[in-house]
Amino acid sequence: VFPSLAQAQASVANEAYQELGQPSIFLFCPTEYCSSLCSPSPSQSCYLLTLGQELLPGIGVIWTGPKVVSQELSATLLEEVEGVLRRQPVIWDNLYANDYDCRRVFLGPYTGRAPGLMSRLCGLLLNPNCELQANFIPIHTLGSWFQSELGSCAHPDHTGMEITAALGDSQGSQEGTYSPREGTYSPQEALELALLDWVAEINQQASEPGR
């Protein structure tokens, strides 16, 4: 029925999106969801070019970066992806995913993501370790990175300013709170803060009756 896989997928996605009333968040994961799966490159992929043309503008497209598990994400790469998809991507970040090797657990801080990256994204999803408690540091440091990014983004409206102000009001008075300024995210500082909070959380749980 369809001349290509991309046109078939776009048609089904568009119909589902419209049938659901065009929800504000509707995510599409393409078959080529990272640079290493594109032939010969994201900007020259006939598959991605077709998706960019055919998918309705309100549909978000998921992207994992240069590889399935990307150690680094750069603004240059995201510009290329945005150009071919005709929309900012939603990053599906597999930095901590360990479902492909359950002998490993990733406990380090959120890192390898260029400063100012958030302004080039439609959203970011973190794929965690399979072990729930092992994700305290990943999620905590992601929060520090996100707070730093809010401080460095220049929004044309006041949304970002309101979020930043709210974070400051709720956390600024707490001792030891990470208060990033523009371009000041430090994975090591974020890790140290996360460890302090994690130890406090463990001690609190240990002191509860029956724990």
From TrEMBL:
UniProt name for this protein: OGA GlcNAcase
Gene3D superfamilies recorded: Glycosidases
Domain GH84: 1-150
Species, as recorded: Caloenas nicobarica (Nicobar pigeon)
A Pfam short name: NAGidase
GO terms classed as biological process: glycoprotein metabolic process
Domain of life of the native organism: Eukaryota
InterPro entries documented for this protein: GH (IPR017853), Glycosyl_Hydrolase_84 (IPR051822), O-GlcNAcase_cat (IPR011496)
Entry's Gene Ontology molecular function annotations: beta-N-acetylglucosaminidase activity
